[in-house]
Amino acid sequence: MTSRSGYWRFTTDTTPEGIREAILTHLRLSLARSPDTATPFDWWVSTAMMCQDHIVDQFLATYRAQKADKVKRLYFFSLEYFLGRLLPQNLINLGILEQTKKALTGLGLDVDQIFEEEPQIGLGNGGLGRLAACFLDSLSTLRYPAFGYGLHYEFGLFHQDIINGYQVERPDDWTRFGVPWEIIRPRFSQVIRLYGSIEWDKQKPVWVGGKEILGVPYDYLIPGYRSPVVNVLRLWRSKSTVEFDLEAFNRGGYFEAVAEKSFCESISKVLYPNDKTEIGRELRLIQQYFFVSCSLHDIVRRFLNEHTDFDDFPSKVVIHLNDTHPAIAIAELMRIFLDEHNLPWSKSWELVSQCFAYTNHTLMPEALEKWSVPLFERVLPRHLQIIYEINKQLLDSVPTTIPQRDELIRQISLIEETQPKLVRMANLAICGSYSINGVSALHSELLKKELFHPFYILNPKKFHNVTNGITPRLWLLASNPRLSNLITEAIGEDWPTDLEKLEGLKSFVADPAFQEKYELVKQSNKAELSSLLKQRYNFVIDPDALFDVQVKRIHEYKRQHLNLLHILSLYRRLLDNPNLDIHPRVFLLAGKAAPGYDLAKCIIKAINAVGNKINNDPRVNKKIRLYFVPNYGIWLASKIIPAADVSEQISTAGKEASGTGNMKLALNGALTVGTMDGANIEILEAVGEQNIFIFGLKAEEIRQLSATGYCSRKIYETDPEIKYLLDWLGSGEFTPGESPAVLQPLVHSLIDGGDPFFVLADFHAYKEIQSKVDQQYKDRKMWISKAILNTASLGWFSSDRSIQQYASMIWHLAPCLPK
């Protein structure tokens, strides 16, 4: 037996009997509990410790092999990791899920209850963080040497309650009772500096003064599916470097004694502090710098343990920036080389510019971060100097013969000449990276043609595309066991590591026996979800209804309000004609709005208000129901997605970089209703136009409409149906007992707010495609064949394929097997 972070570790045995004994031993020796006093949470912790025992030996073997071979490693920088519940995922990847279930059942325990005791690790806001988690799974599965780096937030993505239709946020205290998965590594803690000033020593700038913060690493081990490789996710938690001032405390200076500690710990306290305030923006900049500085020092430390100088740094280190948030890493690595290792500028820039790769995940301007120069100078004075020098060299490098040189220089400059001046972090990421990629074919083209066009003119070979993907281990094998078993029965068991083998299902598309089994899987999933939602929220849902699902972050460009307008239109038609021939439909929406995003919160209120009215109106004869499911996360997704018939992917064309919810839903047999946006385009190519419902303006048409002048008020004044629906929504009828103005911000945004995401322009096309959905769903045989074809055609959208493309095309990374 050996000790690990306060818990005992035991010899592993993968039989149900061996697993049972390991769980009982952990219950007794690690938790000091006996079976007759143990709570479900105790059983979950003991089971997780047993699982971790199996992972640790594989990790040690992985690390020994990587160190012995001095491998090139990927270091993945992401401000978000949406891991969810690790126990079922890890048990599946280790191949001991069924044995563990038998062991727990043999102990007289409810397996589902034990699994649901695990807090969800929600260190992400949505798709970006979940993508990062999928990538970690694929990296280990494909045996690539990799480290993930991020922040150990004390409070993850907030818990969402719906009270009187309004979103109310509660803190997500996910570490309150301890986390058996994490391994604390205090020996590898890093000290970083903030604020201070620059002094000159023999014509060399020296950063002095300010505050020092301690970064403590917490490691999570990430096993691959049927793979001997276990990689690491290292998350940094901030602490004070200053000893507690007991003397000040004893003389009554209580606040003085704890003020420094409180400031330091606030850095890793909350995921995405509200940046509507100056102090919120400052904290967010500090968060980003803190995590990249700790991570880069850790990378340099590891590199120097294996190499004597930095000449081999680019051949052994590739640092991937997962969106713009970690872009300050480029200036920080320059500072480390220049100030801490005394390398000359030219050598430092040569090393830096050869080891960074950057993925842009959005075309939305608010995500392309910019920091005011005064804020930057106060928090990171040395980095501002470095950025100005990088910018000078960048602008000097622009050929004098290039057309419209002055305008191009203005666009690529790292400094935006506003009042106050702004530091453009996306430009820094592009300038300092050897590779830039988008995450869908359309997105990558828009980066080259529009958002980053000046950079593309200067260096087109830098730009690539890698369409996003999802891990089939979570989004099919774990979340939809009924469909997974049916697939394995039909085509064998190798598909979870080679998802394109799903193509074999195409031979069953017209097979009546397989169609019957596939429909039974879908109906069983719908019945299970209906029961769950009835039990938890008292939602009344008919499993035989069409399940129309839109589950994603609440944002105007994702257009939940377009969905709502169609539902209102359908409601009005039913009131006019209660015998309207439509198949009963349940609209399920879910997602969280950023705490400071007032209009997104208004959309949530509107959905709940309209849903409450419809669901209690006997005149609709239960033909439509509308529910907003609170606190959407990975666990809820794993229940909703397998039950969905229709997948709403209705973002404004040109605004969604890729989307991965579209992939998860289509893989599980939901037919997509979508615009020509993001990965919808590639899903269309994969499944064929007869098996997807595409509508609306295309990105180029949106651009042209914007250029010629789009007037939403004119649509409102000339279109009787749209006018009626908007007036109805804003009339106060849906918010009795409250001010009629409650939903006016939403109505105003669509009329006099300019309708920035073209909801009214696409309304009638959306309404028409939904009528087509209704008609086709009534032909059950045809619908099921389309659903099977969607599942069979989605193999290319595996995160394994994405990672293989990154590894070969961008990272130049080779697998490394434990000896």
Automatic annotation (TrEMBL):
Key words of the record: Carbohydrate metabolism, Glycosyltransferase, Pyridoxal phosphate, Transferase
SUPFAM superfamilies attached to this UniProt entry: UDP-Glycosyltransferase/glycogen phosphorylase (SSF53756)
Cofactor: pyridoxal 5'-phosphate
Enzyme nomenclature, EC number: 2.4.1.1
TM helices/strands, residue ranges: none
Catalytic activity: [(1->4)-alpha-D-glucosyl](n) + phosphate = [(1->4)-alpha-D-glucosyl](n-1) + alpha-D-glucose 1-phosphate
Enzyme class: transferase
InterPro entries: Glycg_phsphrylas (IPR011833), Glyco_trans_35 (IPR000811), Pyridoxal_P_attach_site (IPR035090)
Known function: Allosteric enzyme that catalyzes the rate-limiting step in glycogen catabolism, the phosphorolytic cleavage of glycogen to produce glucose-1-phosphate, and plays a central role in maintaining cellular and organismal glucose homeostasis.
Sequence similarity: Belongs to the glycogen phosphorylase family.
Name of the featured protein: Alpha-1,4 glucan phosphorylase
UniProt source species: Candidatus Methylacidiphilum infernorum
